[in-house]
Amino acid sequence: MAEMIRAEGLEKRYGEVRALAGLDLAVPEGTVLGLLGPNGAGKTTAVRIIATLLKPDGGRAEVAGVDVVGDPDGVRRRIGLSGQYAAVDEHLTGFENLEMVGRLYGLGRAKARERARELLERFSLADAGDRPSKTYSGGMRRRLDLAGALVASPPVLILDEPTTGLDPRSRLEMWDVIRELVGAGSTLLLTTQYLEEADRLADDIVVIDHGRAIARGTADDLKAQVGGERIEAVLRERGDAERARAILAEVAMGGAEVQTDDTGRTLTAAVDDGVPALRRVLDAFEGSSIALLDVGLRRPTLDDVFLSLTGAVTDEKEAGR
């Protein structure tokens, strides 16, 4: 597949701060690349360079074969950009917002109006299309903003944290919209602070920290880097923790340490034989007097990957989400 976005050795400084330190990215046509990283990792700087809003201090980037520095207008004709905050004029109706974008793209009045109605229908906003957008909910504004990025039918979409601030239902609705776009052939660069979002939407993931890519691969590839499956046991009584720890230590992979959470009642052990190890643990707990609230086999999450690679919590956890 052709690469619709390609970045090689991107560098960017803000005074003494090195925001990007030789970042490489590649997004094949019709795929989603998830760009993850802690606060200050360089995600938004990379997006702004690829979207021609910033010039790199070093390296190069192309969108659909067009250089972002050499022909920024050509790049802008090929991309749709949705930033962290919905860029809509709250005094205009949803229809007027989209019509305005179409006119700015030079579609002409009739075509711009036709495209506006089409997108309002596609994003389930037709009933609200003639209302001022200031009356829209947060989820509706985000859908309107994304619709605006699609007015000119660009082959490449750049979404910078598109579901930030949305409630869970609105986030799920946005995920459905994004899946539909990719299913129709769009190529997507997605930055997100929600690891579940990258897990569900991205074909490949690049984790960046201090302006560099420190890991890349599918969600399953990255999870494999931090080990295989885990047995997690939740105790009814904290006082049983030491005996439970001894049971789990018998099946822990390579003598790995059994982890205990802050409550002292949830214990986790990495295992390399999955279901057989779980059976042995269940038999051992059944023969003891330890009361369990829950026990099961868990796969590593992208949170585990993030902690392992960066030593930091994710943005969403820092924000208390």
Automatic annotation (TrEMBL):
Entry GO MF terms: ATP binding; ATP hydrolysis activity
Membrane-protein topology: Peripheral membrane protein
Pfam families: ABC_tran
Listed GO CC annotations: plasma membrane
GO biological process per UniProt: daunorubicin transport; doxorubicin transport; response to antibiotic
SUPFAM superfamilies per record: P-loop containing nucleoside triphosphate hydrolases
Keyword Membrane in record: yes
PROSITE patterns the record matches: ABC_TRANSPORTER_1, ABC_TRANSPORTER_2
Keywords from the UniProt entry: Antibiotic resistance, ATP-binding, Cell membrane, Membrane, Nucleotide-binding, Translocase, Transport
Compartments (UniProt record): Cell membrane
Domain ABC transporter: 5-235
InterPro entries: AAA+_ATPase, ABC_transporter-like_ATP-bd, ABC_transporter-like_CS, ABC_transporter_ATP-binding, DrrA, P-loop_NTPase
Protein family (similarity comment): Belongs to the ABC transporter superfamily. Drug exporter-1 (DrugE1) (TC 3.A.1.105) family.
NCBIfam families named among the record's database cross-references: drrA
Protein known as: ATP-binding cassette domain-containing protein
Organism of derivation: Nocardioides zeae
